[in-house]
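Case study.
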Amino acid sequence: MSAFCDDPPRPAVAADIVILCLREGALQVLLVRRGGDPFRGRWALPGGFLQEDEDLDACARREMEEETGVRPGRILQFANFSQPDRDPRGRVISVAYLALLRAEDVRLKASADAAEAAWRPLARTRNLAFDHDVILAAALARLSDEARADPAFLFPLLPPAFTLSRLQSVFELTTGRPVDKRNFRKLVEESGRIQPLEAFERGAHRPARLFAPA
Amino acid sequence: MSAFCDDPPRPAVAADIVILCLREGALQVLLVRRGGDPFRGRWALPGGFLQEDEDLDACARREMEEETGVRPGRILQFANFSQPDRDPRGRVISVAYLALLRAEDVRLKASADAAEAAWRPLARTRNLAFDHDVILAAALARLSDEARADPAFLFPLLPPAFTLSRLQSVFELTTGRPVDKRNFRKLVEESGRIQPLEAFERGAHRPARLFAPA
DNA sequence: ACAAAAGTGTTTTATATACACCCATGT
DNA sequence: ACATGGGTGTATATAAAACACTTTTGT
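After joint prediction, the assembly is written out as follows.
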């Protein structure tokens, strides 16, 4: 006898993770090439099934660490995907997460079910396996919202010390819109989310002050 | 042989719904008294398991219609609850929804697993079954956010025609804070979300103009 | 000297807040 | 006449947006 009155169907539950970084001056997403059917050879978001002893956040963190070797700071659960036919193998509910990190921290590993893992620029990312195009689009929309609400959301994409110009360029990449330099700097400096350092970045120009998260 | 490489555990997946209405001048939540173990006799949020042929939104709508007889306008998926031990019967992932409706539209029915269904004032709602206290609290927080972002979110709580005073009082109930009458009216009237009617509500005072959603 | 990016304030506009009195009806 | 809630406008404060030139370094 089941412990449940109505013997519910039991879908598999997976956490799929949109892991973004900054590479080659653009946002890139971590994808894995599927080693088995369905969608063999197609790119997909990394993810994996919820295990017995973990909640969804723990599952997402575990999968992410397996894939990247990086223990993510913050992960954001942003939507569920539950169309009955979204996975040809059977019923799979996908809980989608967004995570930001630095490409330099990542040592990509081919994991159990990923033949290959790679960073892909968002522009050239289409025709993913399953409904992952939709999941990715939803993640980017949410990223834009979060960044607008608080640019500090983007800190994990950047090194521990960064210039305001760099933060602004990431902000513009994620929101899609250019912003005024003076207004942006004022906003961020007055937000209390950063602290100025006594260090500077040098280049073929005036040195730029570095800032760190407050 | 499983269609899945790693034969994932298969939790039950349920939609639990925080259904709110306006009754006796307060927000009230629809609860069901549990007819069976665990938590027999305790109040719980209505909800039910995801079926084979439906996605989560459809599941929430179906459960809600079963419970209230009302086909909800908008339902809002606002969080997942996935602690491994949140249900003593076994693994159950809860996807939580928020829905607003009018108490007058509801004819409460005792459903399959609900011995009794009733509206309960939020103030006296505690010690719900499972982690439903937490789910309810999260729903109220989200409601407050949505109402602040756009008071039109609250329209489903009200009849098809309502006075601005009534809308304001609901707004104050949901956000917790009193607002200035003139500022609130200005905001709502200029939002384009309502249209004035040539009808008035009478009482022991000056008649109040009625408005309808735009 | 030139190129390249860093840095810096003020003005304008829009939005949010604070605030008090008269009006129309029922009793 | 009085009690009850309905209805209205302005002034202030805060936040957002627009806008251009000078500074510092490397080459």
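Observations recorded in class. Strands of chain A lie at 12-23, 26-34, 43-44, 47-49, 75-81, 92-100, 114-121, 162-163, 194-203, 205-213. Helices of chain A lie at 56-68, 132-149, 164-175, 181-190. We will return to this complex in the next lecture.
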